[in-house]
Design goal:
Layout lengths: L7 E4 L6 E3 L1 H8 L4 H10 L3 H8 L4 H11 L4 H9 L5 E4 L1 H13 L3 E6 L6 H7 L8 E4 H4 L6 H11 L6 E5 L2 H9 L3 E4 L3 H10 L5
Parallel strand pairs: 1-4, 1-6, 4-5, 6-7
Antiparallel strand pairs: 2-3
Helix pairs in contact: 1-2, 4-5, 6-11
């Protein structure tokens, strides 16, 4: 059991509650050619490029930057946001089940802290009813900063008057979890729903 009482549970969304992966789209575009898929997503529409949209860069600007750099790939680049919804396979049902249990128990305040473009996040809000379970959601694209930079965690703390020492943070990115721990939160590095359930039980949050 942690020394402090846990009052707040903060979830990441993509990779924890929402199954999002550009490969779901580009497997269709490149007809399951793994070499083409991996080459495009590691050399053109890279994670480093995508994360800047999470930090507030507009989709139009991001798209144009890549078209200028890779004019021969324009059609494939435009598909990234033209067909962005096809990158969402659905919910991570095992984690959603845990979230639903926490909501039913009503012992803890539930929040979300997500790296997500402000322009695409409304799609998630419309698609996933469970996002309504949270007392508050901080979206990186709206704040013009992102995890793992401390500022976005501080926005969460300030906006909802959260005590980091009374809060658990769950994320599939280890650097994001490490920043949360550095700021005083209890961190859980998410790998799969069964592991998360076990970790929450070890903390006495679930029984």
């Amino acid at each position: 059991m942690p020394e402090n009482r846990i009052d707040n549970i903060v979830f990441d969304l993509g990779g924890v509650l929402v199954d999002w992966d550009p490969k779901y789209l580009y497997s269709k575009v490149f007809k399951n050619d793994e070499k083409q898929i991996n080459s495009f997503l590691s050399e053109v529409c890279t994670p480093d490029w995508n994360v800047e949209q999470d930090a507030g860069r507009s989709l139009a600007e991001a798209t144009q930057i890549l078209i200028d750099r890779f004019p021969g790939q324009e059609d494939h680049i435009r598909l990234f946001y033209d067909r962005w919804e096809e990158m969402i396979r659905g919910a991570v049902q095992g984690t959603v089940t845990l979230l639903e249990e926490l909501k039913r128990r009503d012992d803890h305040n539930l929040y979300a802290l997500t790296n997500w473009s402000a322009e695409t996040f409304p799609v998630a809000l419309e698609r996933f009813d469970f996002l309504g379970y949270f007392k508050g959601i901080v979206v990186s694209g709206e704040e013009k900063t992102r995890k793992p930079f401390p500022r976005i965690y501080e926005i969460l703390f300030d906006r909802y008057s959260l005590d980091p020492g009374a809060s658990v943070f769950i994320d599939d990115s280890l650097p994001n979890v490490e920043t949360a721990k550095d700021l005083g939160m209890t961190g859980i590095h998410f790998r799969h729903p069964e592991q998360l359930s076990s970790d929450l039980r070890a903390l006495g949050i679930l029984h």
